Amino acid sequence: MNRTRTKTNYMINDELLVQITTWIPAGERSDFVNEALERALLQRRREKAFKAMDELRLKAKIKMTDKAITRLKNYGRP
Question: Which residues contact 73 (CB under 8 A, 6 or more apart)?
Answer without folding.
Answer: none
